[in-house]
Amino acid sequence: MRTLFHFPLSPASRTVRLVLGEKRLPFEAIVERAWEKRPEFLALNPAGDVPVLVEDNGLIVPDVYVICEYLEEAYADIPLLGRTLAERVEVRRVVAWFETLFAKEVSGRFIDERVMKRLSGRGNPDGGALREAYASMRPLMQYVNDLAENRNWLGGHFLSLADFTAAAHLSCLDFIGDIDWAKVPAVRDWYAKMKSRPCFRPLLGDRVSGITPPDYYTNLDF
Questions:
Q1: In total, how many domains does the chain have?
Q2: 94 with 203, same domain?
Q3: What is the mean pLDDT of the chain?
Q4: pLDDT over threshold 80, residue 213
Q5: pTM above 0.90?
């Protein structure tokens, strides 16, 4: 069986888990604490990051971008990038927005300060960094709310990789209780649709030592 090395509160890892689930591709999930720099893991991915997918035939596919593009090419019966060039451009644009701007300004900061620092022994959260993340979060979440309000799905009129990427980032923030859903009602309604998909169910069962998600994290209807 294919194997995915991941970490539960890694948005990149969650994106791949969602895509594998949506494409109905079975896999074994192995939690990897990448900061420990295991030689066996570095042999799979010298960059030392999760996720890393290992196929049944031994093919090693590292990095969320590479994995998602690979899965789209190798298992094209359930397409997640769109049919036309314009659709694929827009889906990739939204994906890149989350993986670059949103990750840098919001999700990456919160996860590093609230989760990774403690787990990797790098001290306590930096209050200044968290305040900056909250300040950045407001306009960026409003942009996501505008997308959700004016489209069927975030990438356009069809469910796509844009939705799974967004859900991966927002579900991590939801796990640590850093989203005020009342301020982004269209995002809340879109996220409820995502949570109800079968591929999302395993994420609702994720747990990380020392961190308790809010009660509504597992509630499909908030």
A1: 2
A2: yes
A3: 97
A4: yes
A5: yes
